[in-house]
Amino acid sequence: MRRSVLILFCLVLAGVAEGLGVASLLPLITLIGEDGGGSKGAKVADVLSTVGLQPTIGVFLAILVIGMALKATLSLVALHQVGRAVADVAVKMRLQLIDALLAARWSYYVRQPVGRFSNALGGEANQAGETYNQAAQLVADLIQVATYVTIVALFSWKLALLSLAVGLLMVLTLNRFVTIAKRTARKQNRHVKRMIGGLTDLLVGIKPMKAMGRHARFQSLFERDAETIRRAQRKQSFARHANKTLQEPILAICLAAGIYAALVLGSAPPGEVLVMSVLLVRTVTTIGKAQQGLQALRIAEAGFVAVTETIELARRARESLHPGATPSFERAVAFRDVSFAYDREPVIENASFEVPKGLVTTITGGSGAGKTTTVDLLLGLHEPTAGEILIDGAPLAGLDLVAWRRMTGYVPQELILFHDTLLSNVTLGQPEFTREDVERALEAAGAADFVAKLPEGVETIVGERGARLSGGQRQRIAIARALIHRPQLLILDEATTALDPDTEANIVRNVMDLARSTGLTVLAISHQPAWARAADHVVHLAEGRVVKVDSHAA
Ligand SMILES: Nc1ncnc2c1ncn2[C@@H]1O[C@H](COP(=O)(O)OP(=O)(O)OP(=O)(O)O)[C@@H](O)[C@H]1O
């Protein structure tokens, strides 16, 4: 805000300096219009003499040079500040977007194409910064218009009105090119966003497409977007050039009509007509420049609008992480008559079961039975539509949710490793974890042996989404990641389903040993028999209902 005021202040002063400089030219140019113009230029000389300056040619020229130098200096200060503001605006919007995204509810991500965010963080945020630049340029142009109109009014108020009228005529005639530029910029942004969103999705799932030779088909989908972008870009470019180049003939027509009327019909003195023509052209050209500035602003604004909308949508999906009591987990987690629906159809209905502390519980059931949803509810990623989830008897809704999540280790069904070192994948970049912590977690997850055999050990880069590791190795790394912060409850959501029975049995044995030796509570979601056989408790789900609970606990 303070910077904007400083910029405005500098621009206004620059306008005044330019005005003074140009005004000092008036007496000079009126000399050219020896017949009649001299008296009007003399007004400026009068003004100068009232402030103690001799109206000599030397003084006029000195004022012109000083005025222009001052204008240049002040403009430079303003533009330097504008440059800083442009970078600040882009960075601020990026940070706001990241902040809003990270604070959003889980259900929000599920409904968004991720590419949308990459685009907002990249091109659109830059465009948003550029909006500030164009807005400042427009303000500078408008100040210049005001300066010229004032100077012309000093010379002749009728000429000032005429300049404004011609300028307005030009603005109204060419305004549709500004509208076209704005429309095409928004269209272009929309399709670029769609293209990036689609491509990101495609690249995430490229392996099966390649494997089945079906990737080429997608080319045509992107071609359609690319074609729309091409057309929008061409139209926008035409609108920009048309706005610029058509200003001259409009001005020429008005000027020719004016000169004809003044010289032939009105028999005005040619000198005065010449001076008036010079002033009119200068003023109207400045108005034209302001209109081009408005057009550039409209184009850049498309990015600003797009990022603002994305931030707004993410903010509306903000997760309500109300402060609450610190959870204690000494006895059990319990679902009491919990129901939940994503849309209208209930996915979980009156579910009641317990996950006792220190034991291994498995939730089993067919595909779509609601197992993942149950875990999501337990982690507070969704809120039950009815019933309660209790941690040691305390309703989860009244607890500090982040503190509760920090007490859990979570290994999802579709785990993603980052394209980074094995170490960073386990610590998730959190510097408080030492190498000993990493080694302990790898050991506990049964990953220490294979990591030790890698030439670069924990410094091995795992490749895009962990592609340089086998499925079982990736899963062990994900378990190590879930164990490094010594959670009290380890949740494995189909974490071993994709593995061969031997690897799965190995991981099950490992986790069971860990649970027995450390008292870690484990909740394993699986429709495979391996976990059901090993667990102390088995909760059977079918169509969102708990149909049976088996207890093998000693
Ligand atoms: N984000 C969502 N929006 C709408 N419906 C959803 C969403 N996620 C899951 N569902 C629906 O909820 C039901 C339960 O899904 P859930 O993923 O919990 O089942 P699951 O038992 O884990 O299945 P699987 O073993 O196949 O992973 C399914 O009918 C599914 O279509």
Automatic annotation (TrEMBL):
Gene3D superfamilies: ABC transporter type 1, transmembrane domain, P-loop containing nucleotide triphosphate hydrolases. Pfam families: ABC_membrane, ABC_tran. It is found in: Cell membrane. The chain crosses the membrane at residues 57-79, 159-178, 250-268. SUPFAM superfamilies: ABC transporter transmembrane region, P-loop containing nucleoside triphosphate hydrolases. Residues 333-554 form the ABC transporter domain. PROSITE patterns: ABC_TM1F, ABC_TRANSPORTER_1, ABC_TRANSPORTER_2. Keywords: ATP-binding, Membrane, Nucleotide-binding, Transmembrane, Transmembrane helix. GO terms for molecular function: ATP binding. Its main location: membrane. Residues 5-288 form the ABC transmembrane type-1 domain. InterPro entries: AAA+_ATPase (IPR003593), ABC1_TM_dom (IPR011527), ABC1_TM_sf (IPR036640), ABC_transporter-like_ATP-bd (IPR003439), ABC_transporter-like_CS (IPR017871), P-loop_NTPase (IPR027417), Type_1_exporter (IPR039421). It is a multi-pass membrane protein. Belongs to the ABC transporter superfamily. This is ATP-binding cassette subfamily C protein. It comes from Methylopila capsulata.
